[in-house]
């Protein structure tokens, strides 16, 4: 099957044109891009898409999200990570979500992603306390049905939470600590068995699904688990997808628990490699940045989530200079409230400027466009398959109208995309050569029916979740104190953008 997009403004983000816009054609044969250039001439029996007043670019990559938060959008605010986690990921847990809701939840992620011009997601979902191949299969099934390209994993933690936070054993009363005691933790070997079964069952399905490895964070996993994760990720050539240095509390965690930063800890274990993908990387030191550059690893910057949880601003320019790949992510729909990468592009570009007055170092639209496309693909270990429009790559692309108020008059299309577009110009989404959204409508699934079912079924689940939240509220003062004490610790690093006094009585941050 052949499709020709003729006479469009094209941003290829790779190949001979690089990230310079040009007017031309794209020929798609089956799943792949067969030709791209200024004028491809007659192409026989290809079905034609008129590219006039249209912009064609690679589909966006959402390098980091948690589908497990999808029912919590519009639910929380005004909480730092350590406090918010108590409610979004309760310590005193709920029973596992029923399978139909698990499916609907993943389907909502797929719908919101595709309708926002995202063609690849990296979903790091949590499903405590279970680790089930069948339930993982439910998540994969949703993305398979919707037509999305997805790297999927269920994140693993095998250290009790109070041992992963600075000061926690000292601050949390013993009677509350007792509530969290017990429960066997999975070993590296057991997790490896689970992951190998997941690779066998799902990896490579439909030409667009991959299983990846996700130890939640270095301080949340034992050394044997981190080593098993690294070995598997390298052997299967998939990301070792983890969270590092999102908050000031985590910047205090490394020195408190290991006598070194969390990045140096990973490096000393020998697990900081090219396929390591680090969500956040806000509180990295200059030494950390150098180690990350040496490793050629990737960072997924979650600009909106980091602002919502008050985490700070990542030093993206320094990371780029060191040779680290930058991708963009929304993080979960609870710490962000949408899965719109267009929003993250805009915020990432803008917020970086408030981290310093040297405007020669600010990020530009080209930096952001690369992060949203080929950088994202690289962070997902998929740069040979997607992330740019090049001959031989999978046809993962989006078409936007430019005869609207967003692009009229047209200056530099890259700057329109970063600073003016929000996804409203999106007309068509193609993934793996298949049109999955046309004229704003999903072609593979009945969106209205899924939304109707979710509106009917989810409120009871959220009601039960409210009761879980109430049970966990008892921990809040102590987690707030962990956050407060960490923010007061001088570590010679400041990634907060503003100058709000840190706490009453404290010196200005
Ligand atoms: Zn995350």
Give your account of this protein's structure:
It is a single chain. By secondary structure, the protein is of the alpha/beta class. It has a domain at about 60-360: TIM Barrel. It has 17 helices and 17 strands. It has helices at about 80-90, 100-115, 135-145, 170, 175-180, 190-200, 225-235, 250-260, 260-270, 285-295, 305-310, 315-320, 340-355, 365-380, 415-420, 445-470, 475-490; strands at about 1-10, 20-30, 30-35, 45-50, 55-60, 60-65, 120-125, 150-155, 210, 240-245, 275-280, 300, 325-330, 395-400, 425-430, 435-440, 440. The strands form 3 sheets. Strands 1, 2, 3, 4, 5, 14, 15, 16 and 17 form a 9-stranded mixed beta sheet that branches. Helix 10 (about 285-295) links the parallel strand 11 (about 275-280) and strand 12 (about 300). Helix 6 (about 190-200) runs parallel beside helix 7 and helix 14 packs across helix 15 (about 415-420). The protein is globular and about 75 Å long. The N and C termini lie far apart (about 60 Å). Bound molecules: zinc ion. Zinc ion binds near residues 279 and 331.
Report a brief summary of the structure.
The chain is an alpha/beta fold and 509 residues long. It has helices at 81-88, 99-115, 133-146, 168-171, 174-179, 188-202, 223-236, 248-258, 262-269, 286-295, 303-308, 316-322, 341-353, 365-379, 413-419, 447-472, 476-488; strands spanning 2-10, 22-29, 32-37, 47-50, 54-58, 60-65, 118-125, 149-154, 209-211, 240-244, 276-280, 298-301, 325-328, 397-401, 426-431, 434-438, 441-442. The N and C termini lie far apart (60 Å).
Q: Keywords, please?
A:
four-stranded parallel beta sheet, about 500 residues, nine-stranded mixed beta sheet, alpha/beta, binds zinc ion, TIM Barrel
């Amino acid at each position: 099957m052949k499709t020709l997009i003729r006479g469009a403004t094209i941003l290829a983000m790779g190949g001979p044109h690089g990230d310079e816009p040009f007017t031309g054609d794209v020929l798609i044969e089956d799943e792949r891009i067969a030709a791209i250039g200024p004028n491809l001439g007659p192409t026989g029996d290809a079905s034609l898409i008129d590219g006039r007043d249209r912009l064609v670019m690679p589909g966006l990559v959402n390098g980091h999200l948690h589908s497990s938060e999808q029912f919590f959008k519009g639910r929380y605010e005004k909480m730092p990570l350590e406090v918010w986690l108590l409610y979004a990921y309760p310590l005193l847990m709920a029973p596992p979500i029923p399978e139909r809701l698990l499916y609907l939840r993943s389907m909502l992620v797929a719908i919101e992603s595709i309708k926002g011009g995202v063609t690849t997601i990296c979903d790091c979902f949590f499903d405590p306390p279970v680790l089930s191949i069948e339930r993982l299969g439910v998540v994969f099934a949703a993305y398979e049905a919707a037509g999305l390209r997805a790297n999927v994993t269920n994140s693993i933690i095998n250290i009790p939470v109070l041992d992963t936070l600075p000061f926690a054993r000292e601050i949390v009363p013993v009677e509350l600590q007792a509530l969290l005691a017990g429960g066997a933790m999975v070993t590296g070997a057991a997790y490896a068995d689970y992951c190998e079964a997941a690779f066998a069952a799902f990896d490579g399905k439909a030409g667009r699904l991959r299983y990846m490895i996700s130890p939640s964070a270095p301080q949340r996993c034992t050394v044997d688990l981190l080593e098993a994760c690294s070995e598997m990720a390298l052997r299967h050539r998939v990301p070792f997808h983890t969270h590092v240095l999102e908050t000031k509390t985590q910047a205090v965690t490394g020195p408190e628990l290991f006598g070194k930063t969390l990045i140096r800890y990973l490096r000393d274990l020998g697990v900081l490699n090219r396929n390591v993908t680090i969500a956040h990387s806000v509180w990295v030191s200059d030494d950390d940045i150098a180690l990350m550059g040496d490793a050629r690893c990737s960072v997924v910057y979650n600009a909106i989530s980091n602002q919502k949880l008050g985490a700070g601003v990542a030093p993206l320019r320094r990371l780029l200079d060191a040779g680290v790949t930058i991708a963009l992510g929304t993080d979960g729909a609870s710490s962000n409230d949408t899965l719109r990468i267009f929003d993250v592009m805009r915020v990432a570009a803008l917020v970086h400027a408030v981290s310093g007055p040297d405007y020669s170092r600010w990020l530009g639209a080209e930096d952001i466009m690369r992060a949203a496309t080929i950088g994202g693909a690289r962070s997902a270990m998929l740069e040979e398959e997607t992330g740019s429009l090049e001959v031989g790559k999978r046809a993962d692309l989006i078409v936007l109208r430019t005869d609207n108020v967003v692009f009229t008059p047209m200056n530099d299309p890259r700057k329109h995309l970063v600073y003016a577009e929000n996804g409203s110009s999106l007309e068509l989404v193609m993934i793996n050569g298949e049109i999955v959204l046309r004229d704003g409508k999903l072609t593979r699934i009945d969106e209205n029916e899924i939304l109707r079912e979710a509106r009917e079924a989810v409120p009871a689940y959220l009601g039960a979740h409210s009761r879980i939240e109430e049970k966990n509220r008892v921990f809040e003062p102590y987690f707030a104190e962990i956050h407060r004490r960490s923010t007061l610790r001088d570590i010679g690093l400041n990634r907060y953008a503003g100058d709000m006094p840190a706490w009453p009585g404290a010196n200005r941050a």
